[in-house]
Amino acid sequence: MKTNERQPERICPICGKAYRAVPALSRKDGQTLICPDCGTREALTTLGIEPDEQEKILAVMHKFMDSYE
Ligand SMILES: [Zn+2]
Question: pTM for this one?
Answer without folding.
Answer: 0.79
